[in-house]
Structure formats: C-alpha cells, structure tokens
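Worked example

This section walks through a single chain of length 410. The input is the sequence exactly as stored; nothing has been trimmed or padded.
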Amino acid sequence: MLVLPAVYLLSRKLLNAANSLLATLFIAIDPFQAEMIVTGALPLIAMSLYLFCLWGIIDIIQKKVNILNVSITIISLALIPFINQTTAGIIFVILPFVFLQIFCEEYLNFWNKFNFRKYIPLVSTVFIGGLISLFSLPYYLKVLPGSELMSYPGAWVYLAHDGVAWFTFLTCGFLGIYIFNKSSNLVPRIFAIHLILMGTLSLFLSYDETIINVFYRSRYFVRFFFYSSLIWVFLYLQNKQLIKPFIPKLISTFFIYLLIFTYGWTFNTQSEYSKTITKNSEIAIEIMEGSGHENVISNSFSMSLWVSALMKVQSPHIWTSEPPSAHTETDQKTRCVLNWIKDCDYEKAIENLNVSHVLLETRFPYYKENVEGNYLAPANQWEVTNQASWLDLIYEKGTTRLYRINNGIN
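Given that input, the structure is written out below as tokens.
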C-alpha cells in the first residue's frame, strides 16, 4: 500500500526510525483506513500523495534542493486533484496555513530580516506542481459548492452530532494545541496545524456534497498525523521525566490490540454495507447481457455505479433524500417507471430514459440500522412496483429482482 511508506517517510521528519515504524504500524491497523480500503481507495491514494508532497516540502526547507525532493513534491501535488477531489479540497484549506507557518517560523517578529531568496526553490516547486494541477480545473468548475450536480436541499454547514466527530475534534484539537505550545520547531508545528485544522473540520457537515467531503474525510485524513504526534508527545513527556518509561510501551500495546480488533470489525461491517452487487445481481446482469438491453434502472446510487461500469450503460436510480436539482427530472421519471407516481406518463418516461430493464436489490436502503427510506417512496414500495403492467418479472432470487420493460404490452 502506498500509504505505509508515505506515513513512514513523513514520520521520519518528526521521529526516529523505530518510532516511525510504530506510527506506520498504527496506520496499517487503523479502522478508518479499513473503511476506505473497502469503500474505495482513491481518497487513500491521494492522501498518501499529500504525505509525500509534505515530506518533499519539509525536505526542501531542511536540506538543499535536490532532484528527489523536488520531483516528489511536484508529481504528488500535480496528481492529487486528478485522483480525488475530496483530498484536493482538504489540502486547499490546509496548505495556506502550512506555508504561513513556514514563512513565519523564524521571522514573525523580525519581518525586516525575511530572506525571500531562501524560499524561492520551495515556492517555485509548489508553483510548478500547482500549475500542472490546473489542468483538472474544468472538472472542478462543474462541482463547485452550490452546483446543481452536488448540492442537496439543506444547510451548507451545520454541526455534526455523532460521537466520532466530537471525539476527533477534542482529541486532535487538544493534541495539536499542546504540541504547538510545547515546540518551537517547524516540523512538530506543521503536524500540530494538521491536527487542529482537520480536527476542527471534522466537527461540521453539509448538505452540499463538495463541502461535506472536506468535512467528513478530515476525520480519516487526520489519522495520518495523529499517531506520529501522539508518539512525539509521549517521548516529550518521557524526556521531561513527567511519565515513567513503561507508560508509552503499555499504551502502545493497548493501542495495537484495540486497533486490531476494531480494524477487523470495521472491515467486515463495511464489507456488508458495501455489497452493492450480489451474486444474484451478477446473474441478472448476465441475463440482460445475453438478451440485449438499453439503459438499466437500479434502486441504489452505489449499485448504479456498478451497473453503469459493468454494462457500459446509464443507470438511472432512486434516491434516499431529495436529489440535487440537476437530477430532479431524472428522479421523477425513474419513480414513474417504478410505478411510484400515480397516473404518470410511464411510456414517455421510458422513452426519455431509454431504459429496457429494472434491476432491484430490495435490501436497499434497509441494509443497516437507522436509515431513512427512499425519497417519495410509497408504502410497500416493491409490491407497488411489482404491480406495474409494463414491467415483466423475468428473474427473482433472494433480494434480487429483474424486470423487462414491455411498454404495457402483455
């Protein structure tokens, strides 16, 4: 995994080799990483690239410029926006504070002595990487906050109420403030900045997909800085003789056992949540592939992505909340085909969506506890769908149903 060498390399700027390996071990068995491995590794890859980029930035400051640190910084920074927009959004918030700390590290009180030439290699390197990343700008202009594609009806920003958000905010915030107060060195303070800012971002949520990704994924991103920083604090306390030497070892052992258990539980639980395509769904897809098809309606956003990718078609789907405005019309037509809208023009909806089949996994959206139902779904939604005269049930097994659309001709 790319993340492990990235964590180790960056941790070496803060810790010795042995403790950097310990921090890397913690990340390897961290339950937050287990969830990202299951749900999709792109954020994990982009976050890893940022760690490489940050290593390069620190290395350029600490040492003379060389091909290695310049290349790693430019390549990592340039690739991130093309791999994952969430990571790009987070570092767009974080990096200005990092550079503010870098530039003010030695000259905050003596601005007239600021040596601009010292930072020309760093600024030039970051500028080149940033310039290359601008080729991704056309995509980002489509998904800006408030865009029709990404913005759901509701508040742009509101406080999270879950325990994970507040625990992350309190632990990372306290740890970051403590480190920033106790160390005047650049590297610990850079780690502290990440803890404070990402911990604070974790405390908020949004109904805008672009914004919520920055808030929500900060809970995961901050872990890459949390363990190294925690080890640094215990070493600091030990060196100050404020704690006994056995305490860090005892806590490390406890953390390892705790993380191993929670990693396994998280991986298995998330795997169950992420089963968007079952074996029966695969059989249904094979049936459609064998008999010919147009676009395929599905009943889950995640499932629609799989259907689209596997069958090379569009897969209109229903929603669990009111969709962004760009999808309102398609959502209405999809619900019409499913017989959820009384006396709608299903023939026109079928024609406009260009659909030939409906593939349902009826366990959605009730595959886990405390979930809302489908948006504007009738009572007994699948029984209502089953009564549509224009839908012929051609395959049913387990929770999977496959209908062929007959346009009302029996």
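What to look for: The chain has a mean pLDDT of 91.
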